Amino acid sequence: MICSSPASGKLLRTIAVVLGVWLAGCTGGSEPGLTDLALYGDFDFLIPTTDGDEEELDVEPALEEEPFPIEPSICGNDRHSNGETIQAAEGGPIRVCLGGDPLDGSVVLLPAGALSADARVTLSLTDDLVAEGWRPIGSAVLVRAIAVETGLEAELTQAAYFRLPAEISELGSDPDQVKVRVAFKPIDGDANSASLLDLSGPPGFDFERGLISFGYDRLGVLQAMTAVLEQ
């Protein structure tokens, strides 16, 4: 009976692997694959990445993703028309009706003859205005009208009617107690030089949808504001 020590056992295993490689070469066989060499930790550096014939994996079909829910617009049945052309002689509304958009519900209604020329009218989000003693309660809306023929800014020849988003529900539901004004900045003006509009009357409030409405005879940046409460 021949006894072998751990060292001699390791040597025998090494010889067996070397002989296996040599015999495979002599008999035209292939090199030992992953399962052959994986038994011998000392030969990890010799382990090929594949066994030759790669095993075909079963790929599970991708799950169909649930569509994102579409948030309804507060415009109701009104049509989104932002960026459309308004014929000066006819007038018409430009609306932002996009559920979840910060300008959703914004409107400028141009009476017939209110524009100085046929123009593409847009409402877009812009930086907040700054008015001392007042803070924004809605998004700042840039209202522009670009004349179709000249590409220049068209002007208002009479008042248009605006509707802006405003977080007025937190201010209460009594219009006489709600301190809301509208800040205005000309298109080419400085953001820090906004002025509070001297409207002919207080803005109209839609507390349910969070909107204020008013009339004004200039285009530019408009934003709902409320008075900063003294501490």
Indicate the proportion of strand residues.
Answer: 25-35%
> How confident overall, as mean pLDDT?
77
CATH class group of the largest domain: Mainly Beta
Global geometry: globular
| CATH fold type of the largest domain | Chondroitinase Ac, Chain A, domain 3
Radius of gyration over all CA atoms, rounded: 37 Å
What's the CATH architecture of the largest domain? Sandwich
Structural class: alpha+beta
How many distinct folded domains?
A: 2
Order of helices and strands: HHEEEEEEEEEEEE
* Helix share, percent: 10-25%
Give the N-to-C terminal Cα separation.
99 Å
Biggest sheet descriptor: 7 strands, antiparallel
Number of strands: 12
Count of individual helical segments: 2
As residue ranges, the low-confidence spans are 26-50
Please give a quick description of this structure.
The chain has 231 residues and is α+β, with helices and mostly antiparallel strands. A hairpin with a 4-residue loop joins strand 10 and strand 11. It has two domains: 39 residues; 143 residues, Chondroitinase Ac, Chain A, domain 3 (Sandwich), CATH 2.60.220.
Show the helix and strand layout.
Elements: H1 6-26, H2 34-37, E1 85-86, E2 92-95, E3 107-110, E4 119-126, E5 134-136, E6 140-147, E7 160-165, E8 180-186, E9 195-196, E10 204-206, E11 211-216, E12 220-227
Antiparallel strand pairs: 1-4, 2-3, 3-7, 4-6, 5-12, 6-12, 7-11, 8-9, 8-12, 10-11
